[in-house]
Amino acid sequence: MSQDTKALFIIFGATGDLAHRKLYPAIYHLFKKNMLSESFAVIGTARREWSDEHYQEVVLDSIEDLTESKEHAKAFAEHFRYQSHNVKDSEHYHTLKELADTLDDEYSIEGNRIFYLSMSPSFFGTITHHLREQSLVTDNGFNRVIIEKPFGTDFESSKALNDEINDSFDEDQLYRIDHYLGKEMVQNILALRFSNRLIENSWNKDSISNIQITLSEDLGVEERGEYYDKSGALRDMVQNHVLQVVSLLTMTKPASFTTDNVRKEKLAILKALKDPVITQDENTEFVRGQYASSEDGATKGYRQEDKVAPDTLTETFVAGKIIIDTDEWRDVPVYIRTGKRLAEKTSRVDIVFKSTESDLFNDQPTLLSVLISPDEGIELTLNNKNIGPGMHLKPTQLSNLRSEDTREESPEAYEKLILDVLNGDETHFAHWGEVATSWKYVDQVRRAWDGFTDSIPFYPALTMGPKEADTLLSQQDHSWIYKA
Ligand code: BG6
């Protein structure tokens, strides 16, 4: 067992939904696969008064479907302790430090600490300040901070948040989660692009007509109306997941797969994004929409959702044409769309290649689709001769989708990301430079939309968004490849 997987996790927000759904199962998977040393412990904190026993029951409940045996699950849950905690109270950090030091001794952890901030960002600065001031940060091991989104609500607020955190921790101790970066098929983008000469050589403006990213969800806002109505799809999905995927699809080949080199190239793309044109007519490069009730009336509209203002103008759908203003990419629009209550849950990328320039055939564009979730795999659509006389074409699809078994066995995003934190690998986390540059880009769209106070285009729930999203592409003789 390697030394560096020893760690004490301190989770702020341990009673929350994310901890239950994602974190405990992810840590359990690492335990089960022997990727976590026996020298680990978890302190869960939150306002509520819970006993260790109750907390361990909650942890057991979260891994119920994953366990090998009751004994194994119990052996895992015994590493968990609970501490009721008010993040603003210095005294509470002293108590926390005592418990942390005791567990450090008990499990021979040697000072390695991972602080997991899974609560409202308004507390991040307070928590990191106290961690440093009340000496929860150790001298003898590593000290890493995992930060959940949202990282601010615009550039200004994210900078203020970052400055506050930087008072206590350096950038190389910060792991900002963007769970899309932990997804297998998102990580696969660089492998596909840079390990296949066929693909590498055609990944350019001479061969690619346009790139399309679709992150669609069929669910509505569920219980998150309060957060979502202030956020909207632009902040919730575009600033982070969508722009991260854009950067991976278009970044220059890194000199090597080090964190610094990958980040440098991703940042270069984000910095090169052309300022978007936002108008209320068809010249706009970004369109928004909000779901109304479904055509059959069975699914309610966004304005009828719980904790959403009845006259809200918040967008539940965004589509955009992103232009990377470099000689390499200027002529290749990257179309993006994301939203709630769309026809289907799917995350995918479609690379639309140009037709050949010869008159020999009436060929259709070659297509490469990267299916991120729920299907995982790649599909390549090529022109083929139709069997029989003549020289007529028929599109043929080569498909490599991962089987359900493979998908179930492959590690979930949170599991991989937590393992990365244990190993000190920051490649699949959002660097401050990327976060800041992404905010500056989407802020321009936000500001323009905030000025359009009269109305918002509606789309019936469970369709693929407003018609404006189709016009965005048809103006350039393009069309969405993925049609639910
Ligand atoms: C989160 C958003 O970051 O991503 C959610 O806050 C969204 O609103 C989710 O539902 C989508 O993630 P995934 O992995 O289900 O595509």
Give the structure's gist in a few sentences.
This protein has 484 residues and is α/β, with parallel strands linked by helices. The chain contains 14 helices and 15 strands.
Explain this structure to me?
The chain has 484 residues and is of the alpha/beta class. The protein folds into two domains: 7-148, NAD(P)-binding Rossmann-like Domain (Rossmann fold); 181-412 and 433-474, Dihydrodipicolinate Reductase, domain 2. Helix content is 36%, strand content 20%. It is built from 14 helices and 15 strands. It has helices at residues 17-32, 52-62, 70-77, 90-106, 124-133, 155-166, 184-195, 197-202, 225-250, 259-271, 404-409, 413-423, 432-451, 468-474; strands at residues 7-12, 40-46, 80-84, 113-117, 143-147, 174-176, 208-216, 286-292, 317-322, 334-339, 346-353, 367-373, 377-385, 393-401, 458-460. The strands form two sheets. Strands 14-13-12-11-7-10-9-8-15 form a nine-stranded mixed beta sheet, with helices on both faces. A six-stranded parallel beta sheet has the order 3-2-1-4-5-6. Helix 10 (259-271) packs parallel to helix 13. The longest helix is centred in the middle third of the chain and has 26 residues, at 225-250. The radius of gyration is 24 Å and the shape is globular. It binds 6-O-phosphono-beta-D-glucopyranose. 6-O-phosphono-beta-D-glucopyranose binds at residues 179, 215, 217, 236, 347. 6-O-phosphono-beta-D-glucopyranose is lined by residues 179, 215, 217, 236, 347.
Question: Main beta sheet, described?
Answer: 9 strands, mixed
The amount of beta strand, in percent, is: 15-25%
| DSSP strand tally | 15
Tally of individual domains: 2
Structural class call reads: alpha/beta
Number of helices: 14
Shape: globular
Q: Kindly report the CATH topology of the largest domain.
A: Dihydrodipicolinate Reductase, domain 2
The CATH superfamily of the largest domain turns out to be Dihydrodipicolinate Reductase, domain 2
Which kinds of small molecule does this entry bind, naming each only once? Answer: 6-O-phosphono-beta-D-glucopyranose
Cα distance spanning the termini: 47 Å
Tell me the radius of gyration.
24 Å
Share of helix, binned: 25-40%
CATH architecture classification name of the largest domain: 2-Layer Sandwich
* Arithmetic mean pLDDT: 96
CATH class bucket of the largest domain: Alpha Beta
**How are the strands of the largest sheet arranged?**
14-13-12-11-7-10-9-8-15
| Topology as a string of helices (H) and strands (E) | EHEHHEHEHEHEHHEHHEEEEEEEHHHEH
Extract low-pLDDT stretches.
none
